[in-house]
């Protein structure tokens, strides 16, 4: 889980996407709780890696559905990605992460 978390290449399963979105929102909560309005440059500095992580994980989840990463900007599509299964077998964005996970457990 979280192999190349900041990369926009590849595919991830629903479980990794859900965990990454939970981490993103927890990170936002922590930033908003501990930083005051006077520290806005610090907020930007802390928010950029967090936003990059979330966008990268969203793009990889879109890839699992054989869509480009731009699909995540469609309203409510991120909620759809929580529930929709990925494509079975390899697609144009890489091998099936479920099969890769099963192969790792067999070795």
TrEMBL record:
Keyword Hydrolase: no
Cross-referenced InterPro entries: DUF805
Keyword Cell inner membrane among record annotations: no
Source organism, top-level taxon: Bacteria
Keyword line: Membrane, Transmembrane, Transmembrane helix
TM regions (residue ranges): 17-34, 40-56, 68-86
Protein's name according to its UniProt entry: DUF805 domain-containing protein
Organism name: Hymenobacter defluvii
